[in-house]
Amino acid sequence: MTAAAATSAPPSALKGQLGTYVGLTVVLVGMVALFGTLSEYFLTRETFISIANEIPALAVMAVGMTFVLIIAGIDLSVGSVLALSAAVTAAAILQWKLSVPVAAALGLATGLVCGSVTGAVSVAWRLPSFIVSLGMLEAVRGGAYLVTDSRTQYVGDAISGLAAPWIGGISAAFVVAVVLVAVGQLVLTRTVFGRHVVGIGTNEEAMRLAGIDPRPIRIIVFAATGLLAGLAGLMQSARLEAADPNAGVGIELQVIAAVVIGGTSLMGGRGSVVNTFFGVLIIAVLEAGLAQVGASEPSKRIITGAVIVVAVIIDTLRQRRADRRLA
């Protein structure tokens, strides 16, 4: 396979992408209709505003994770990076007495550095990103505990503007998340960098033979994912008005689930940021609906886990069908 073949989008792929859009829309609308039937309070303005204001952190991390999975990588450290970035921001405001913009910039820089380290280590030593990010998950979480002295840091309304109602009760964080989804989709589908990302996930050796070094691209993808996790930390701190060193525990699984539900292949080479956003909405609606119908916490976890497994099975079957068509 040539580099051009690896990065082009044949008509069959475009049809498949359209089919995925339609399928995800049907699933989302079906879930809304189901929970609307089961709960008289679900189909209300308050429910949808609540869902919209709760998903920005998950959505922005899922944007970065989409690119990571497309290059056939994975980043398990995003939840810990979220916590450390929020902790650094809170420490900068409360302990170091820095201005809010400078503190926010430090939080974002923390995420960028963490993501860059994950990418650089996995590339330099040719280590699986799964192992490197697993180590970063522990190390960065420890850093969050050190910065906060293992206690929740209450920042008050210093950065609450991100979570404040803006348009019809929708927060500025949600608007930022939607903009980042649009930008991510444009970068993936309309830029040379996006074509290189898809090419690396499809056939990295073909990209090398075409004279394209995949190493800096991989590092940039992980660095951007860390930066977005840092932004997610700011969003969550703004909503809670606090930085919790335990924040984001397990959220990396939700992020990966949203990306996979959106149709991004775990094998790399295929994905869509817009579809990932649909995956985020599906998870958010599922959790909100289960909460309103009175499902217990164990039941919610079982159902959510089952949805993830089904999404992976569907992705595997879809990949096998695509391979048979190519053969």
UniProtKB/TrEMBL annotation:
The record lists the membrane-crossing segments as 20-43, 55-74, 80-98, 105-127, 166-188, 217-235, 247-266, 273-295, 301-317
Query: Which GO cellular component terms are attached?
Result: plasma membrane
What keyword terms does UniProt attach to this protein? Answer: Cell membrane, Membrane, Transmembrane, Transmembrane helix
The record's listing under InterPro entries reads:
ABC_transp_permease (IPR001851)
Q: How does it sit in the membrane?
A: Multi-pass membrane protein
Keyword Translocase in the entry? The reply is: no
Determine the domain of life of the protein's source.
Answer: Bacteria
User: Has the keyword Protein biosynthesis been applied to this entry?
Assistant: no
Which coarse location class applies to the principal site listed for this UniProt protein?
membrane
The Gene Ontology terms for molecular function here are: transmembrane transporter activity
What is the annotated localization of this protein?
Answer: Cell membrane
| Name of this protein | Ribose transport system permease protein RbsC
Organism listed in the record: Variovorax paradoxus
